[in-house]
Design brief:
CATH class of the largest domain in chain B: Alpha Beta
Helix content of chain A: over 70%
Number of helices of chain A: 10
Order of helices and strands of chain A: HHHHHHHHHH
Number of strands of chain A: 0
Shape of chain A: globular
CATH superfamily of the largest domain in chain B: P-loop containing nucleotide triphosphate hydrolases
CATH superfamily of chain A: MetI-like
Distance between the termini of chain A: 45 Å
Radius of gyration of chain A: 20 Å
CATH architecture of the largest domain in chain B: 3-Layer(aba) Sandwich
Structural class of chain A: mainly alpha
Strand order of the largest sheet of chain B: 7-8-9-3-10-11
Oligomer: heterotrimer
Largest sheet of chain A: none
CATH topology of the largest domain in chain B: Rossmann fold
Number of domains of chain A: 1
CATH class of chain A: Mainly Alpha
Number of domains of chain B: 2
CATH topology of chain A: MetI-like fold
Radius of gyration of chain B: 22 Å
Number of strands of chain B: 21
Structural class of chain B: alpha+beta
Largest interface: A-C, 39 and 40 residues
Shape of chain B: globular
Helix content of chain B: 10-25%
Largest sheet of chain B: 6 strands, mixed
Chains: A mainly alpha, B alpha+beta, C mainly alpha
Strand content of chain B: 35-45%
Number of helices of chain B: 9
Strand content of chain A: under 5%
Chain lengths: 228, 362, 234
């Protein structure tokens, strides 16, 4: 069972991951829908940009975030008077995690939307529903299984995020020391191996739980569609 | 009430369709790939022609000259798709309610109870589309389209994914719609039996162009169109009325403008109008009525023309009273019998060949 | 922004000027990642192919294991390798903790499931296409795998390139098993993390520029290879 200090790390990690997910999910749904259903000049470029965090080394992403959102960065300076600070705070960790997990979300949701029969959306239009109504009453409900799977995968990725986090907001216990950072820190301390192992076990347990849940949901939706 | 004049191209496929009709059921007929579904999609607003005009029931839906292009949700068209396309995550009740509009003063709103009763949907309301049979699904699809209070009903091969008995069932529902609902219907199909049974006005499409259009019986009779309507399906369509039923032998006697027809197993009451399709290959010719033969239908008439030759076969048009019957016989027979325009002849039609697929309730 | 552009100018001078410290780090990264990619491919490509084409006992567990490995946080993998190689661990005798060898091991373990998953995807598609021909020629699924892998060699080369990029990008596991020791186990990714936290931007920037260039070049090469082989083989 986790000690008080370990609970602090776990709670922080979960807070960071859940916030990262909550913020990136609506954006990911919108982006996935555009990529799945629309053809416009520059769509391939847009797709490539969305996938950039998947391709780039995490430290590079963290560094870019530091340059842009750090205290002296252009965006950071804009947001500071509004009270939104990312540098060296858990919000920065959440931002790093959400960007690293974004491509995974978009991929899973896009797959879900593309597997829908587009003619269903056309049928809804002929019945008098405008594009927004079609999206919320037909596309979204039918894509929910894929969205949930994507969210779980993204959540697992956010929990495991290391490189971008440590580069952007460094390793501040209680503020930015998420589970992976805590594991690393424990190995740097003499005699901390056991501690690291304990933390690792918690991390693995949560990841596996999320993965198992997404597998179960996929299987359940497959069984449901077989009955269709 | 339907005025379509559009041009569009998609890749290598070019569509140029221009037709106008004012009939309860307008059928768009042609082979797969002839462009008929594209025309209907254009009417619904799901496809945008490059240039043209679409006017339905006096309302302009699309006109490039005036810059009008109503989005699908404003066009008030009901669309019944080939496989129903019911929303899988909603119950039948929710599917039916999807298109229901808030009542607008001046616009008649469709009576929900009436639609449900007409299509027999009461027992299906709480079911999910996945648990319905093909025929049930199509009925719900029709109901859903009707409940959106459309001004015109578009049906794109609604029977294509159904089996025989189911086809007949839905066909009769469509006939019911035409009679009870007074809603203009645009019916797309590549199956000639459906079209001859339902259509009043026929638009023949081939290779993205309108090959012919006009009243159904006229189009069906034209020999030059036989390759498009289907060679072996060339024939005549006769509008008749039931005048008597022979219970003992299960035969009905129909009267048409030119004589009588005896038809087996027609379940109709005296006085009912009936449309009968007679395939050219089922008609034999004679220069005198046969003495003792099984033909129930011996129609006296005059040879009108001898035309299109298909190898050993030839098609002969015989005027019987006010209608024309087409017969496909061998050239040898024509030579042996000395048939030529103006010659008196008898068209012999086996009652058997007029099966239930050939009979439609007009 | 001004200090950023100043640092950038400095960074580019380090890169172009062949700064010994910077290029030593780059060279080590490339060596280590190349070794890891080769090992991962040596095991991962056949594994992916077998999983795609054959039904063998334990196939399902292999798939589950590979998926789980893909989803695990990289620091956990790093920790496991660390514990194995540490003096108290089973392989402690080898004394390779905090050496490049440890980094190679950790990176190989991380890249292997990625390579296997991609190989599986490619082989599955090819298998669907060629299954009839191969079985009619009397070739068993197991024996088909080498043939399929050879046929797909260009696609698999792209997998190797992507694996290399993934290995070079890894930082968490490498920090744990390598220790980021100057001149011994400091690779591009860990150096960037360190220099950024120290506030020494020019070196971090310079390394970042090189790392991005390497990764983008790998992806571009993989893309070009795919296009070229598609055009040649249809």
């Amino acid at each position: 069972m986790p000690t008080a200090a370990e609970w602090e790390v776990l709670a922080l990690s979960l807070k960071v991951a859940l916030w990262a997910l909550a913020v990136s999910l609506p954006a990911a749904i919108a982006v996935a829908y555009v990529l799945a259903r629309h053809r416009f000049p520059g769509v391939t470029l847009f797709d490539a940009v969305v996938h950039l965090p998947l391709v780039l080394p995490p430290v590079v992403v963290g560094f870019a975030l530091l340059v842009l959102f750090g205290r002296n960065g252009p965006v950071g300076r804009l947001l500071e008077p509004l009270g939104i600070v990312f540098a060296f705070r858990w919000t920065g960790a959440a931002l790093a995690a959400s960007i690293m997990g974004f491509p995974l979300l978009v991929r899973a949701i896009r797959l879900a939307i593309e597997s829908l029969d587009p003619r269903l959306e056309r049928a809804a239009r002929t019945l008098g529903a405008g594009p927004w109504r079609v999206f919320f009453t037909v596309t979204l409900p039918l894509a929910v299984p894929g969205i949930v799977t994507g969210a779980l995968l993204g959540f697992a990725r956010c929990l495991g995020e290391f490189g971008a986090t440590i580069t952007f907001v460094s390793n501040i216990p209680g503020e930015t020391q998420t589970l992976p950072l805590a594991i690393y820190t424990a190995t740097q301390v003499p005699g901390g191996d056991a501690q690291a192992l304990r933390l690792a076990i918690f991390s693995v347990a949560i990841s596996l739980a999320a993965l198992a849940l997404s597998e179960w949901l996929v299987r359940r939706s497959r069984r449901a569609s077989l009955h269709a | 009430m339907l005025d379509v004049d559009i041009r569009l191209s998609r890749g290598r496929f070019g569509l140029e369709a221009s037709f106008a009709a004012d009939a309860p059921i307008v059928a768009l007929f042609g082979r797969s790939g002839s462009g008929k579904s594209t025309v209907v999609d254009a009417i619904a607003g799901l496809v945008r022609p490059a240039t043209g005009r679409i006017v339905v029931a006096g309302r302009t839906l699309f006109d490039t000259a005036r810059g009008i292009n109503l989005p699908p949700e404003q066009r008030r068209v009901g669309y019944v798709f080939q496989d129903g396309l019911l929303f899988p995550h909603l119950t039948v009740r929710a599917n039916l309610a999807y298109g229901a509009r808030l009542s607008v003063p001046g616009e008649p709103v469709v009576d929900r109870a009436r639609v449900i009763a007409l299509l027999g949907l009461e027992d299906l309301l709480e079911r999910r589309p996945a648990t319905l049979s093909g025929g049930e699904r199509q009925r719900v699809a029709i109901g859903r389209a009707l409940l959106a209070s459309p001004r015109v009903l578009l049906m794109d091969e609604p029977l294509a994914s159904l089996d025989g008995p189911r086809k007949a069932e839905i066909l009769s529902y469509v006939e019911l719609l035409r009679d009870e609902w007074r809603l203009p219907i645009v019916y797309v199909s590549h199956a000639i039996e459906e079209v001859t049974r339902l259509a009043d006005h026929l638009v023949l499409l081939a290779g993205g162009k309108v090959a012919a259009q006009g009243p159904m019986s006229e189009i069906m009779r034209r020999r030059d169109l036989a390759p498009l309507t289907g060679r072996f399906e060339a024939g005549s369509v006769i509008e008749a009325r039931v005048i008597a039923q022979d219970e003992a032998f299960g035969l009905a006697t129909l009267a048409f403008d030119g004589g009588r027809l005896v038809v087996p197993n027609v379940d109709a009451l005296p006085g009912e109008p009936i449309r009968v399709r007679i395939r050219a290959r089922d008609v034999a010719l004679a220069t005198q009525p046969p003495a003792r033969a099984s033909f129930q239908n011996v129609l006296a008439g005059t040879v009108r023309s001898i035309g299109a030759e298909f190898g050993a076969l030839v098609e002969v048009e015989v005027a019987v009273g006010g209608i024309t019957v087409v017969a496909r016989v061998t050239r040898k027979a024509v030579a042996d019998l000395g048939l030529e325009p103006g010659r008196a002849a008898y068209a012999l039609v086996k009652a058997v060949s007029i099966d239930r697929h050939a009979v439609g309730y007009a | 922004m001004s200090d950023i552009s100043a640092s950038l100018a400095l960074a580019l001078r380090l890169v172009a000027g062949g700064d010994a410290g910077l290029w030593k780090i780059v060279l080590l990264s490339l060596e280590v990642s190349l070794a890891a990619a080769l090992i991962a491919c040596a095991f991962g490509l056949p594994l992916g192919g077998l999983v795609a084409a054959c039904r063998f006992p334990g196939r399902r567990s292999t798939i589950v294991l590979l998926n789980a490995m893909l989803g695990l946080p990289s620091v956990v993998v790093g920790l496991v390798v660390y514990l194995m190689l540490s003096r108290a661990g089973p392989l402690g005798e080898l004394g390779i903790l905090f050496t490049p060898a440890a980094i190679v091991i950790a990176q190989s373990i991380l890249v292997l499931p990625v390579v296997a998953a991609l190989a599986r995807q490619f082989v599955e598609d090819a298998w669907d296409e060629y299954r009839e021909q191969l079985t009619s020629l009397g070739v068993s699924p197991a024996r088909s795998v080498p043939t399929l892998l050879w046929d797909l060699r260009y696609s698999l080369l792209t997998v190797a390139l992507l694996g290399f990029g993934r290995a070079a990008s890894e930082v968490g596991a490498v920090m744990i098993v390598g220790g980021n020791i100057d001149g011994v186990t400091r690779v591009m990714s860990t150096a960037i993390a360190l220099e950024t936290s120290k506030g020494d931007l020019p070196l971090a920037l310079g390394l970042g520029v090189v790392l991005i260039s390497v990764v983008l070049a790998l992806n571009a090469a993989a893309y070009a290879l795919r296009e070229w082989s598609a055009r040649r083989h249809g």
